[in-house]
Amino acid sequence: MQMGPDCQFTRSVDPKFFISSLLSCRNIFQIRQVHAQIVAGGTLTNLIVANKLLYIYALHKALTDAHALFNGMKERDSVSWSVMVGGFSKVADFINCFETFREFIRCGMQLDSYTLPFVIRACRDRKDIVMGRLIHDIVLKSGLDIDQFVCAALVDMYAKCKVIDDARQLFDQMPTRDLVTWTVMIGACAESGNANESWDLFERMRGEGVVLDNTAMVSVVYACAKLGSIHKARLVHDFLTRNKFLLDVILGTAVIDMYAKCGSIDSAREIFERMRQKNVISWSAMIAAYGYHGQGKKALDLFPMMLSSRVLPNRITFVSLLYACSHTGLVEEGLRLFSSMWDDFAVRPDVKHYTCMVDLLGRAGRLDEALKLIESMSVEKDEGLWGALLGACRIHKNVDLAEMAAKSLLERQPQNPGHYVLLSNIYANAGRWQDVAKIRDLMTRRRLKKIPGWTWIEVENKIHQFSVGDSTHPQSEEIYRMLVTLSEKLELAGYIPDTNFELHDVDEEVKVGNLYSHSEKLAIAFGLIATPEGTHIRIMKNLRVCGDCHSFIKHVSAITRRVIIVRDANRFHHFEGGACSCRDYW
Question: Which windows of the sequence hold PPR repeats (predicted)?
């Protein structure tokens, strides 16, 4: 498009000419040129042309020009207001976005399904649930609560603000739902920890004949990864295959992650090898998968293959590599990778990389080096970093350093009960029961509760959930009888309950009894009862598996000749023949 500044137009110029010219603009300079010609041609009074100019300014994020034009417009309609509200929202200028919306209401303009979704999305992006609820009230008063686009925006807003109950209530009330709304709701449920609800929604979608696209399937795959169910992972993969979904970079990478988090690292690698295109995220996902399956050397072996494929690593790749090293005890390899980040690949280490290094050194017992690394950091420290140090202090029973790390943690996250519990456990291991009592009293005064431990096992497509000391399961009596039988065999095999992991100031006999009622043990006992001999037992736990349970499961895998796969909060453990894939390094 070329348009000299001296060109003159008369009022007879067809407005479609200016609209066509605006659509062909590639930069702000060209837009301003056309704007000048519109003014010279006297066509700015044409509302359609003015709105299109307003839209093009907003599209190019030239909100100063757009606002000046908007303020000078003698006539405005709902499109004009929508463009301004949406324009401010897209550049994250939430103050002007909300102020423009307020002015829109004050002017007596009738609310519509064009303007409202923009301001609702601004609430979503700002995570402003207070303003979101106010807008929702306005929607109800205007009678637009039955509009599909407005309702979909509200569901999205509540979901992104993590108010899942309100999002689900709105979703269920919608007379019709588009694919985007289904996708948002599935993803929101998974993100909030309600992966079972995500799966139910997926089943409902299929039942209602909704045609899914790749974006929707990414949300379904993500939810399945959260569930950790290998059965459902295979169902999803079968659905993708039957419906001829192309495993592109995004969907293929999600499937790799799903299989890895459902305990099948071989299936994850198979998908990885079959992908026609792989980017840095795909490679990083496969490296990470080996990392949390405790196969650090395989993770490191992928790195030169990635480089030979002419894919350069990014910060996520190095987080995955360093994590793999820290969970496999590959200290020297981790140190070399950390040094090479900036020197060889111009990737500047951030706090996540330092956290991996603190974890790596800390697990290896090199606490002094971990502390020196923290002190030498030029990037801002966060709770993850201090949490890694505190975890290392727990492993190596360094109470003094633990107190320092805990102090920094509690300053940053005083409402996180996990920090108090970890410090309390360190005190308990050291026999400092008065300090344990002080921590528990502090938690009580701050109204903090310990996160309860749960273990899940899937048998015949049904999830069975156990807590410590649980007796609510229909087969509870059989489960405890199985534990008694196991305890007799385990003692002969050399298993001795480690009461250091029963962190209550009670008699030794009571401690042993408590240990045998840990949720992991209950789930495994049920698995032995409810599954055929020789089949794998897969359990999932929301917290880190304790040291005594780890020893218990190793011995059970030997005497029962079962493979037992445990997914805890940090990683996978594959137990077979009395040994664990982590080599007791976790």
Answer: 147-177, 178-212, 248-278, 279-313, 350-380
Q: CB under 8 Å to 20, separation ≥6 — which residues?
A: none
Q: Alpha-carbon distance 147 to 140, whole Å?
A: 11
pLDDT tens digits, one per residue of 376-399: 999 999 999 999 999 999 989 999
Cα end-to-end span (Å), the chain = 63
CATH of segment(s) 352-451:
1.25.40
Q: Please, what is the Cα angle at 215 between 209 and 216, to 5 degrees?
A: 35
The CA R_g of the chain, rounded to the nearest whole Å, is 29
- Ranges of CATH 1.25.40 domains, the chain: 352-451
Tokens of 225: 């990864």
Q: What long-range pairs does 370-375 form, CB within 8 A, spacing at least 24?
A: 371/401
Separation between Cα atoms, residue 410 and residue 406, nearest integer Å: 6
Global pTM reads 0.81
Contact 299, 321 (CB under 8 A): yes
pLDDT classification of 41: cutoffs 50, 70, 90: confident
Stated as kind and residue range, the H or E segment containing 513 is helix 508-515
Cβ contacts of residue 121 below 8 Å, gap of 6+?
89, 153, 156, 157
| 3-state secondary structure at position 466 | strand
Q: Which long-range contacts (CB under 8 A, 24 or more apart) does 419-424 make?
A: 419/387, 419/390, 420/448, 421/450, 421/451, 422/390, 422/391, 422/394, 423/390, 424/503
φ, ψ of residue 540 to 5 degrees: the values are: -125, 140
**Helices 296-308 and 280-292, packing angle to 10 deg:** 170
Across 209-243, b (16+ Cβ under 10 Å) vs e yields eeebeeebbbbbbbbbbbbbbbbbbebbbebbeee
